[in-house]
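Field reference: sequence -> structure
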Amino acid sequence: MLSFFLFNILRYSVSAIPPRIGYFLARKLVTVHYYSYPSRRAAVLSNVRHIMGNSPYPRFKELGEEGVAKLIFKSFNEFLFEFFKIPYLDVSRVNEVFALEGLNHLDAALDRQKGAIIATAHIGNWEAAGVALSLLGYRLHVVAGVQFSSSMSEHVKDIKRTLNINVVSPEESYRTLFRALRNNEIVVLLVDGDVFVDGLPTEFFSKPARIPSGAATLALKTGAPVVPGYIKREGPFRFKVCIDDPIFPESTGNKAADVEKLTRQVLSKIESYIEENLDQWCIFRDVWAPVSKSRTAAKTGRTESHAPENSPVNS
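Structure field:
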């Protein structure tokens, strides 16, 4: 009860802040956030260092590793402010706030009547993309465990449910996701989530990592196409949602090989999104850390949890 009371104080207080002031505070609190969480800072710097080594985008090299890392913290601060404002967005303002590119690809995927699996990453304001699609009439199902913190998690999920976004816990995901796809609805999976410690051993940005194979596994089991996409922030309450061509699953009878092939196809898209929008990639753990180290990090102080080892979205 106390957590519900405090959460709603936070929710309504933040929602009342004018955007100009909210974004100003998000910028001003970057230094506090950056230096108050040394483990987050170290993880972000490690990730940035790895990706910037081969980045074709000169603007990131000009900023330097720490400059890009601070922009990531800034992006996350803005995400937190936006999270409490966007639920109050009126449907009449969708086209004002969101530029939607490639919506026809999502519709083409749904035309097959097998549902669609959106594969995305923690870029920009990934929650806002779900709100935009929901306001446009799409029915979404999002797999999520603990979000922000254990005391806030259920309240965060309640906000999503009021927006017609069905939040599915990892424990119940299997049947719920299959049913959603049979109903020609949309399943959303974040493929860079912390479940990577138990995921498919593969290469991510040319370096060994464990990546969730749930999108590929689910697609091959149901025939639903995987639709890669992302959202980036282009200004205060201005976002661009980019939806790519659907990837249709192809089964050869070799399950392991099929899952690996489809996962690699999806990752190729995700890598390009992250590389182009590195300053908005809000992952606060070392993606390429050894599994034992990553597992420890995933159990302490994380802002979001995904599927456990035995979840179908991770098998």
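Note: DSSP finds 13 helices and nine strands in the chain.
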